[in-house]
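Figure 2 data, in text form.
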Amino acid sequence: MAKTHTVALITGDGTGPDLAEAARRCIDAALEATPGAGRIAWQACQAGIEVMEKAGTPLPGETLDTVRRCDATLKAPITTPIGKGFRSVNVALRHEFDLFACVRPCKTYKGVRSRFDNIDLVIIRENTEDLYAGVEFEKGTPATSELIQIINRLSADKKIKTGLETTGVSIKPISAENSRRIVKFAFEYARANGRKKVTAVHKANIMKHTDGLFKAAAEEVAKQYSDIAFDQVLVDNMCMQLVQKPELYDVLVLPNLYGDILSDLCAGLVGGLGVAPGANIGEKRAIFEATHGSSPKYRGLNKVNPTAVILSGMLMLKYLKEDQAARKLEQAVAAVISEGKNVTYDMKPNRDDPTAVGTSQMADAIITKLRN
């Protein structure tokens, strides 16, 4: 008898509900089109700005309980305020469930506008520490002034020379344990997916006791995987390398901040965030999500590209061991994009093309491919 997977569906805000529904329909169709595949019992829940107005929090306890109960979670985009308000629902979920590995495949699909062909990279980003740990001290506060004075006393040759009243401070924690854990994850991912090389990315020439620690951990772990090639590149050089010759790289493993930046760079190589899926994976939980924002101005307009959320669902199917259904779903998405007929406005050569379809209609076309 086919297995039933319980999946939390965080519908998000802005365009999130439209995208969540499109992805849910495509995922169900992929399973239905696959002999012997399981089925999904969806558990809808909310997070984000809109639910905050009702619940007083962007991440209600009921949502956390649902994620905790389920086999996996698919999350639609959520708006993160810039410069004010809550820090990030995404970051909160990663910390709550120790989702230490962010996996961002970046792959070219025929029919997507890009300056590059045949790119197939995977970014694996440490998800729990670095500057994203959120250890910050606001300018002008007593705590910040005291911290700066301590830093200056301990590092007489590296004094913070700006005024105490005008300087904010962030702390960049990098641990040996978490560095080894993410590098090991990268090598295990490479081995499981037939990848040939892992590249560690850092800035150890400058940040010798944080990035230097990450570098040392990567070198230590790499010795355990003689079947996988290993190298390391400084993050600024890697930005240049990816633009000049991305074909030289396979799996990149990075600390949190660099991973966030380079994953967007790599998404740009393959056509943008609209085709960039993502996964946040821990020892016991996994949340799958598109890497783009919620585009609130298009809320309810059935307009935006569902590809990234649907492909995130494809990654979720792989995680649930529904590999055949995952392949079918990716093939159907690729076929619709390649034909270029039933795609959203952003995937047309001319963004004003009147033949562009909506979110739901693109999902319909993918489902048709799955059923034929």
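Caption note: The chain is about 40% helix and 15% strand.
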